[in-house]
Design goal:
Pfam families: Hexapep (PF00132). One of its GO terms (molecular function) is serine O-acetyltransferase activity. InterPro entries: Hexapep, Hexapep_transf_CS, LbH_SAT, Ser_AcTrfase_N_sf, Ser_O-AcTrfase, Serine_acetyltransferase, Trimer_LpxA-like_sf. This protein is α/β, with parallel strands linked by helices. The protein contains four helices and 17 strands. A six-stranded mixed β-sheet has the order 5-8-11-14-16-17. A five-stranded parallel β-sheet has the order 3-6-9-12-15. A hairpin with a 6-residue loop joins strand 1 and strand 2. Helix 3 packs antiparallel against helix 4.
């Protein structure tokens, strides 16, 4: 039956304009997920552009930053990893990304928002690693394991953490929010929030009250 509306003057009925089928709840949910995913990719791009003083434009960052490419590919591979039938394709996709970018992120790793991998080459993030929001990893950084047993064997990294070039964070350790790991440090124990880990094996240092507020411009080596 055609829907109609009553004209106030004459009382005549006229049909409503034709309408297409309403989207299903599943379709609406799908497009919401797509929009959220696109917003996440845009955040990654903006984070790389904001944190690298050498970045001149969004186009340059999108085309020429392997660390950003590795993060983007990982976000796709991680979604695939959630489906048991797609785990092999997800693993293969991560290996293609490794060959192209020099960054190896296992598709099972959980990566937060706005991760920035500077330079990228040699970065390794293991399967059970968890990385928070606004984290910076420099080239050669490793979030690895120190056992061959199954289960949680990789680090958990909090928000706004900086891991310096060549640093190794090994085992199911916890790196607290706003902490920093100095270049070439080897971290085998938990690092409290807001502190600095330097040396081999890493020792904990507290930031002085005069430390710069932006972690990406603060070199942990000055606390050795």
């Amino acid at each position: 039956m055609t829907s109609t509306t009553r004209l106030p003057a004459t009382g005549d009925r006229v049909p409503h304009p034709a309408r297409g089928p309403r989207p299903t709840p599943d379709a609406v949910a799908h497009w919401r997920r797509v929009r959220r995913f696109a917003r996440t990719l845009r955040e990654d791009l903006d984070a790389a552009r904001r944190r690298d003083p050498a970045a001149r434009s969004g186009v340059e960052v999108a085309l020429a930053y392997p660390g950003l490419h590795a993060v983007w590919v990982h976000r796709v591979a991680h979604r695939m990893w959630r489906e048991p039938a797609l785990r092999l394709p997800a693993r293969l996709l991560s290996q293609v990304s490794r060959a192209v970018t020099g960054v190896e992120i296992h598709p099972g790793a959980t990566i937060g928002r706005r991760l920035f991998i500077d330079h990228g080459m040699g970065v390794v993030i293991g399967e059970t690693a968890v990385v928070g929001d606004d984290v910076v990893l420099f080239h050669g950084a490793t979030l690895g394991g120190k056992t061959m047993k199954r289960g949680k064997r990789h680090p958990t990294v909090g928000d706004r953490v900086v891991v310096g070039a060549g640093a190794k964070v090994l085992g199911p350790v916890w790196i607290g929010d706003d902490a920093q790991v100095g270049a070439n440090a080897v971290v085998l124990k938990d690092v409290p929030p807001g502190s600095v880990a330097v040396g081999v094996p890493a020792k904990i240092r507290q930031k002085p009250s005069t430390a710069p507020p932006e972690p990406e411009v603060d070199d942990p080596a000055i606390y050795i």
